Amino acid sequence: MTTTTSRFDASELEQRAATMPDEGMDVTRSWFDTWNRGDLDSFISLYAADAVVTPPASWIETGTLKGRPAIRRFFEGLRASWAGRDEAVLRELFRAGDRVVSRMDWQVRGRASDIETQIEVSNVNTILDGRIVRQRHYLEHAEAPQSARSRGVAAPRFARSSRARR
Predict the structure, then answer these.
(1) DSSP β-bridge partners for residue 116
(2) What is the pLDDT of residue 128?
(3) I need a labelling partner for 1 at 20 to 30 A (CA). Which of 9, 44, 67, 71 fits?
(4) Cα(30)–Cα(9) distance, rounded to whole angstroms?
């Protein structure tokens, strides 16, 4: 019987795991980066061809969006509503099982009103093969971790984190 011993102690392994790439987290960070750069082509390419996006329930003018063309039209419409400032500021990012949860402050200026506002939004993404296959947006931050828990996954409580910005 042969036994093997690790060259690394537990703390070294934890540290290595914490710094390993995570495709879902990277895709979500890219989602923020491409939106803030105004690069809609790269932004939309982060979605799978048959992705499903569900905007906040209170946005009655929209329903569930299916496929890249519908998702693109939706985000083009959002872009058209704002003039000047349109920035999604990532406040928190964490993995909840097979999902990635992000919390953001969306800072915008209305095109018609010229009023600056900030909208707090949480997103829950399911990412497969480097693409967003399902995305749900929430205006109530507490609903996002509840969504992750609904599939039996414990999600951390929201807390501001410097780890969100990388």
Answers:
(1) 109
(2) 94
(3) 9
(4) 33
Element of type H or E holding 123: strand 116-128
Grouping H, G, I as helix, E, B as strand and the rest as coil, residue 28 is helix
Residues 18-60: pLDDT tens digits?
A: 554 599 999 999 999 999 999 999 999 999 999 999 998 887 6
Question: Is a pLDDT exceeding 90 seen at residue 66?
Answer: yes
CA 43 to the chain's CA centroid: 12
The token pair that represents 22 in the structure block: 């995570």
Question: With contact defined as beta carbons under 8 Å apart, do 164 and 93 qualify?
Answer: yes
**The pTM is what?**
0.73
Task: Give the Cα separation of 86 and 117 in Å (integer).
Answer: 10
pLDDT interval class at 159 (50, 70, 90): very low
- Give Dmax over CA atoms of the chain in angstroms: 76
| Residues 35 and 88 sit within 8 Å (Cβ to Cβ) | yes
Cβ atoms within 10 Å of 165's Cβ, excluding its own: 12
Answer for the pair 25, 93: CB distance below 8 angstroms, yes or no.
Answer: yes
Distance CA 130, CA 136 (A): 17
Q: In this structure, what DSSP letter does residue 97 have?
A: T
- The domains located in the chain, with CATH, are 23-156 (3.10.450.50)
What mean pLDDT comes out for the span 152-157? 42
DSSP 8-state code for residue 57:
T
